[in-house]
């Protein structure tokens, strides 16, 4: 990096060749990582969880993003709120990361006590003229989109999340996230930059040789392919996928399940994409036998063979909604070479483990796939650190969504590099 890192980053952005991967510093530089945390994760809507994470009054969840720590809590009136996890006395962090149940928010340092509405209720040994009303917790922007929780750390949050919610809530409503529960959560530290994690997620070029479990239910053709590169069997499979997609989409739409593709990954501040995709064989779920993992359907889903609604958001999430369960993913940067990938599996709130579903069967496809992806991200990071690395060309057929992610990232970074 040059002495003037801002000029250096601007030069890197300006000389990026369309259709090629980023230069190595975007994946390896601590300076660029700090810019990412400020310009991307500090100013955009970040997916952090689901309403069932804080299902009842007093349920709380703490999420750390870089140096920021955020308390998400359901208050006494049933509303979900978010606050900076910083005491207004001397700044102590009050609640450790993870989930808990609280009646009040109490700082362990000097016992300043806050209600679930964020107001300061108790502060011993202060002067008679001390105004508790001026020392409530600092709020964090929070938005539930159909039960998916997004926060924004900026003072002014991007308002186009309203447009995303208007489009997405009809897609999400049949799966009724608010009436699910978290059956399992898995945290995986991937040895790679957060952008490599997201790039890997945005394509299925790598799926065939690397994801034997995932490619049982999921068609790699749904993410693009080059017809001229397919052999006769591949062409037959691609045609089968196209026919299944058309017939399934018509059936789903008739049943009240929005399915058509909506794509705004690179033309909006709050970028997103959604589409309901067919599941192979039985067509019910992303399981090893493609049949439902949970016998109790979600929401208003009448036919378990409802395919898989995919939903991607910039900069850090992807989700799969099926008739029997939901899998959601968030990527949270740790440093320039490490990323936390947090996966949740949701089932109907009335489903009982061991009776209505088997946890191993519910989670085995994505547990295997997550580890495979982590291994791929790790070798990508190792390559980016090699002096021989130089940007390589994306496949226009299978890596178009990677290009859109990179374009979105560079545009947002350039808007926020002073």
Automatic annotation (TrEMBL):
Record GO terms (molecular function): 2 iron, 2 sulfur cluster binding; anthranilate 1,2-dioxygenase (deaminating, decarboxylating) activity; iron ion binding
Keywords attached to this entry: 2Fe-2S, Dioxygenase, Iron, Iron-sulfur, Metal-binding, Oxidoreductase
Location of the Rieske domain: 47-151
Cofactor: Fe cation
Enzyme class, spelled out: oxidoreductase
Pfam family, one: Rieske
Gene this protein is translated from: antA
PANTHER family membership: CHOLINE MONOOXYGENASE, CHLOROPLASTIC (PTHR43756)
Protein's name according to its UniProt entry: Anthranilate 1,2-dioxygenase large subunit
EC number: 1.14.12.1
